[in-house]
Amino acid sequence: MMNRKSALELLASKITDEIVVATYSSATDWLGIIDRPLNYFFSGAMGLASSHGLGLALARPERRVIVLDGDGSLLMNLGTLVTIGQVAPRNLTHMVFQNGTYEANGGHPIPNTRVDFEAHARAACIAKTFTASSLEQFADRLDMILHADELVFGCVKIEQGVLGPRSYKDMYKADRRAALRAALGP
Amino acid sequence: MTAPGQQGAPRLRGSVIIDEIKKAGVQYVLSVPDLHTSAGLLRPIAQDPDFRHIRVCKEDECFGIAAGLTYGPRRSIILMQYTGFLYAANAVRGVACEQKLPICFMIGLLGKEPGVPPTQSGKFGVRIIEPILSAMGVRQTCIETDADAPRISACIDEAWRESRPTAILIGGRPEAQ
Q: Exposed/middle/buried for B122, CB within 10 Å: 0-12, 13-18, 19+?
């Protein structure tokens, strides 16, 4: 089983001018690996990462937007797959890191750990999908994740990460949002 | 005030609201259907090539999408019923209020009695909307007739100028043309 940090380190090594939207454990891991103005973090309202990503993808069609979602988070907003499948922005990659737990909330299991997120995405009319269960499989998908000219959904199966309180204080600072706006320009 | 539909009653036309939305430079409309605004607002908006209309599954999604759009910067308006606002309250709090984003949303007050202020409605769900918005610090206005409509573009412009959310309550039922 893959480690989330290893997968994110691989992604970070290839990232250029993409906007990365990350939430909870994915966000703290991502920020620990690569701190850059084009990172997008949002406070409150768990489950909305992909909705923020959809808005960004529409607002900035010249850039790819990569969403790093969690399985507990996505389950709070499953309708997002239907909404995104309908809009289908060509510059959006939505990835869910599936470890079967609410890692940020004490490690309790999600309601059904056998849920097939790729099947959900396909049922929502998202044509380009993948599931990666090893680092090698994830590496094989990197080009698609970063450079596809269509909407992509990916499920990345990972082991549970470190439990316990993580600090989100720094990532939610208004300065970060201002830096992102400045980096994007008018 | 005379009830809409009665002779000489003050009207609220959907076309007047739409003109105001356009005047404010709104490009995107994010909606979950609401019977109150269905015929007079949502149907004409859905057919209007000046808007990019996105049908959304549940109301809280709208706040995430609208937040992302502000990085365009692209102006949007959210259309939902008061029940949907209540459902999305945490997204209003976390996305619009705490991040101080110019997210503009219209709340259809389905079942509000014509001419009756929302806080005096016989419907519990309608009565509590303005106090909840006030508790969140969201500036709000209620549109009852055509005469109120100019406040719509003013509210949207102000929200963008000051980077904060704004709520536009649709009290009267917008008429279709």
A: exposed
